[in-house]
Design goal:
59% of the residues lie in helices and 6% in strands. It starts with 12 loop residues before the first helix and ends with a helix. A two-stranded antiparallel sheet has the order 1-2. By secondary structure, the protein is mainly alpha-helical. Helix 1 packs across helix 3 and helix 2 crosses helix 3. It is built from 5 helices and 2 strands, in the order αααββαα.
Length: 124
Amino acid sequence: MDIVVSNSDPRPIYEQIYSQIRSQIIDGRLKEGEILPSMRVLAKDLRVSVITTKRAYNDLEAEGFITTVGGKGCYVSSVEPSAIREGHLVSIQENIRKAAEEAKQNGITLEELHEIVDLMYDGD
């Protein structure tokens, strides 16, 4: 499992961990039934608090991406295709939000941004 946390990222560290694990599950890099590192091991590897990794794991479990088996660890749950689609939509929304912010900062109109997206989507 490959996770990188950054102090320059405006999101809290637990959210960075959560989103990266979630993305790896949605993309299929982490497979159903695969065991995740313990919260303590992950915290040590990332040099963060165990409370931080616990929060990320709790959020992942609350959304059904992982399952905790007492005394054995956390495992990747089976993910419904609709959850995978929703995950992709959330990721796309975040990327579009960033692009819209950058466009505003640089004086690009909404119409120009639409044209850019249309060209990219159509591959022209």
